[in-house]
Amino acid sequence: MRVPQQLLTIAVVVAALAPLLSCGAIANPPTALTPAAAASLPVARGGVRYDSMLPLEAVVTPKFDPEKPPPLALTYSVTYKGGEGETVPALFVLPRQTTGKVPCVMLQHGLGGRKEDVYLLSSALAKRGYASLMIDTAGHGARPQIGGKPVGELSLEQFRRMVGQTVADLRRGVDFLTTRPEIDTTRLGYLGASLGGIIGGVFVADESRIKGAVLWAAGGNWEKMIAHSQHKFAERYRTGPDAVPPAQVGVVMADVDPVKTVGSIAPRPLLLINGDKDTIVPTMCTDDLFAAAGDPKKRIVLSGGHVPDLSILVTESLSWLDAHIKPTVTADQAKSSLL
Question: Where are the domains of the chain?
């Protein structure tokens, strides 16, 4: 479920954007959830514990020359402590031309990818006044193994833990965003592609501080996904040395199956976009995810496979984020701003 190299070349959307260099700042101590709020949220997914009380130990490093900051956005390299103290590598992008606190969208890549795969999306977001945060999924990018194994060699139970680890790491990412004075934490969104979308159906359900989500090429019901996906990872669990009986797949993956959690995202808004000929995340799984989601929700089905028309994907997503995460200025507000 990796988003292809095409995602790195969203030229139709970002061709006019200036290249980013980067920038920096140091995070404050984390703002923990209240004990009551923490008690109401799941403690673990995939056997990985989320604890908002643990120190973040965030390190934020500028990726640009502070004497010559880029005109559009400032990019920081970040590490922080994720679920059960695992070090999480991230990129944090802030738009430069802003006044006051800005909304932020968390961006998550697909299976076999890395945070840099969705970096160009942060450029498009920065142009519209959004910050963004991208992490490497557990077992990916700068953190390439789970239990000493690369992603392509994981047992199904280890794959479950990879998903659970990433859910916890994303929640700690929200903790990190609460330490940033530039971020309006009442306007946090999520956009995940493929596996990033599947994980998002669990993460956003658990994390009430995310106000809405866009999920690309995401589905639910792991038993169906493993049984019908043409991705090589699914074939591994059907016929490989780590094959799992179909009836057991749903049991193993139950607590990280978004079809069981996505309903809890409501009443926060949700947008699902998928291709009508997707063989990687079968459309029956996307159907199941949409059916399980509460309201308000919207689904856009495009002509194509796992990654259909990128220009439409990006354009529809940005419009949706503007409407739900970054509220549109009303005519009265616009008029008052001119007085």
Answer: 19-326
